[in-house]
Queue: 3 jobs
Job 1
Amino acid sequence: MRWWWAHIIIGIVILSACKVKMSLSGATIPPEAKTVSVEYFGNQTTIAGPHVPQKFTEKLRDVLQSQTNLSLVPKNGDLQFSGYVSDYIVSPVAIQGGDKPAQNRLTISVFVKYVNPYDPSKSFEQSFTRYADYDGTKNISEVENTLLTEIFRQLTEDIFNRAFNNW
């Protein structure tokens, strides 16, 4: 009977020695990492307004704060995100009678550099692209805020998964 308890105690010791830090979202974060920084994402597009990279930067910061227990710092975090908005394209996707678009598409791409000094194999530099369609009878300025909310939700989810979920 004593050997049974010994196996349980040894199992608990072995499991407690594992050093994997989990967040509320189930993401794997290096246990040494206590902080994260997200530098302001610049604007490398010709038509996106200055509010677009600002909103994206804020959304990425919000996601990291809400889905991890890392403290957000302005610069030189244990884990670091930086980059720029590389594309902002409005294009027709469906044409109805004549030349009028039935639907338009807003496509946004961001280039992200992620640095993980604790596990350099998880660091990356990658472009992420997402889009949302809208009614062709509307002007982009009428629907942009709604589209940005949806596109940025998808982009930040992709970036988070790539950085912390081995996606």
Job 2
Amino acid sequence: MNALLQTFSARAGAILVLALALILLPEIAEARSIVEKILGLELFEDSGCKYSDDGSLGWAMCNIVQSLNTVPGVIAVIAYIAGLVFGVRAIFKLKKHVEKPDDVPMEEPIKWGLACGALLSLPFIINVVTVTLVGPQGATNPLEYSEFLGSASSGGLDAVLVNFMTDIWGPAHTLIGAFAYLAALVLTLIALMRIIKDAQEGTKGPMGLGTITTLAIAGLLFSLDDILGIFAQSVFDDNVVTTAPLILYLAGADYSTIMHVTAVASAAIAFFWLIGLVAFIRGWFIIRDVAEGDQQASFMAGATHIIGGALCVNLGPLLNAVQITTGVWLDGVIFT
């Protein structure tokens, strides 16, 4: 008889979840729209992407970015459906607590109910996390960068390097930003779903260090350009990354040579900018692994990635500071 009742309860719960999902389909669609609009998804619509059918690497990266446009909406739908399931689970947990309070403590339905509310309020949670870290929209200046300068010779190795970086610069920046945004969404879901776990889970429990760190890093990745802009302004008093070199020791050379060298130097700085961006993001994932208790990760490795990546992104201003400090800037390369 008990087995029959359990089977009936399970089926009734499944039917209830399906019915709620059908009833709330308009709300689910609205949640998807809110998630896609809450931060504007600038990273998915960046002007650096080109959608011309030229078959280049930049074109392929932009196609990937364009394909990822629907993923935030899918994640929003998953969060909504999971929230509905958790809500039904909370109701059944409450029912069992009323019937057998010794077997099911009151904290069980409360945890499942909180997880339900958090998942159904995903856009609100995202907004709270980002506003807490970087303030309301427009409160900070996001990272910007100057454009390439110079022109490469036709058919030379400098032309290969410059053409390569010119093609992938904008699309790669957009693709990395899109990855960071999607990773932030997934990390947010992971942190919210841990509400249902027990405190015995340690760092992965509801209030464990790993869970709190996961939610905080999600907020950082949501605001990647703002965080990098804050770092640049804190260290170099400017949120604009300079990639345009002014090569002073070539002042007496002919114009064509100056332009070729300038283009190669600018492309090299841009390449290190992308490497620094990847290292910066990787550093936060290492910090999360440390908070989760991963013995293979170290805090120093994460800090090195974060600081080194941020400095690599700001390589132009950093080189300016080093040359001014050593007194060789009048005969060196100044980035403007």
Job 3
Amino acid sequence: MATTADIRNGLCIEYNHDIFQFTEFQHVKPGKGNAFVRCRMKSFKTGRVLEHTFPAGHEIITARVVRKPYQFLYKDDMGYNFMDQETFDQITIDGKMIENNDFLRDGDVCEVVIHEETNTILACELPQHVVVEITYSEPAVAGNTATNASKPATVETGATVMVPLFVNQGEKIKVDTRTREYVERVKESR
């Protein structure tokens, strides 16, 4: 049994007959009163985000989960097909279990979260950052590097990302798959 002192991002717990994963947390010690932990948790079953406050020292039930690397093979009418990197077994995952699945490309290695006790797939997490090529964007305007203005750009997977005005079509960019935000331009190494 764990307590609120063990809370960290990515920790999975059993709460209200569901399995939640912590996405944010903050230990708070007010000047008057008892300490508490304010946190945000995401449900694996419904996908909803729950904000909750636990008193300091409160016991929580951790869920036993395993994260295994799986390589994305292809998408068909049954779902997204992945292959285990160790055993080469293939599984199909519903698109609802993959957040921001429009960044997924053939050959990408993702982490599949599996509940150990029931051996059920809870989620599939994309790599934190992906490098993609811009297939369509308005032409870049010279001298627009000082402002924070942005424009929409379509990348090779079909996803749309907001990029700075100086980014051109055909360039490769790094994107954060959790927030869908532009990170930086990527220079091609020769």
